[in-house]
Amino acid sequence: MATYESLIKITGSVGDLVFYTLNGKNVVRKKSGFNKNAFKKSPSYEKVRQNSSEFGHCSKIGKIIRQALDPHIKAAQDPLLYQSFAKLMTEIKDLDSISGRGQRNVKNGIITEGGKKLLTQFQFGKVANWEDAVSVQLGLWENTLQSDKSFKGDEIIILSVKVDFDLYSTEHFQQKISLQQPIQNIPFEKHFSDDDLVFYFVVLQNEGQIVNMGFV
């Protein structure tokens, strides 16, 4: 992009140059080589279209999950959390070995052992995650949060999050439980069936401060 001086004001394109006004200055730039129609149809752009489609999907899924967790993950005070979480969704999507390129998705990646591990190991800012020491045991009428370590706190918050990967929406329920002793086995409400793909996000607080936070 360059500015120019002329007695004649030019607006529009001449050859491969485009003339316009920007902030009161006469500006000229070379036409972009990008062709929107070619991007949509040309075989040479096929890989770019595939990457763009998968990136958009991961960004949307990451956004709706973050929105469900928003009241808690704000405590991470990480201004780049949306980027690292989108990257996480992309890494999980890459584990989808069922779909063809351009159609790979987070749902098929997250049901794999590798996908589950990536999710539970993700750390929100500097807040410690659960280090795979906490798990959820599904029951007929209620679920149980189990721990093989002694995490100390006075309140635990359990979010059950069901994601609709087609409509890009979530249903989520939150339960707060006061703790009288270190975490071991804690029963909590069951809101979805065992056939639903549900994520469990657990927050441990002590005197109003978050001690541990993450997916289990």
Detailed description of the structure:
- There is one protein chain.
- The protein has 216 residues and is an alpha+beta fold.
- The chain folds into two domains: 2-33, no CATH class; 38-215, Immunoglobulins (Immunoglobulin-like), CATH 2.60.40.
- The protein contains five helices and eleven strands, in the order ββββαααααβββββββ.
- It has helices spanning 36-41, 46-73, 81-93, 106-110, 113-121; strands spanning 2-3, 12-14, 17-22, 25-30, 134-137, 142-147, 155-164, 169-178, 185-189, 198-206, 209-215.
- The protein has a four-stranded antiparallel beta sheet with strand order 1-4-3-2, with no helix packed on it. A four-stranded antiparallel beta sheet has the order 8-7-10-11. Strands 5-6-9 form a three-stranded antiparallel beta sheet, with no helix packed on it.
- β7 (155-164) and β8 (169-178) form a beta hairpin.
- It starts with a strand and ends with a strand.
- The model has no long low-confidence stretch (mean pLDDT 88).
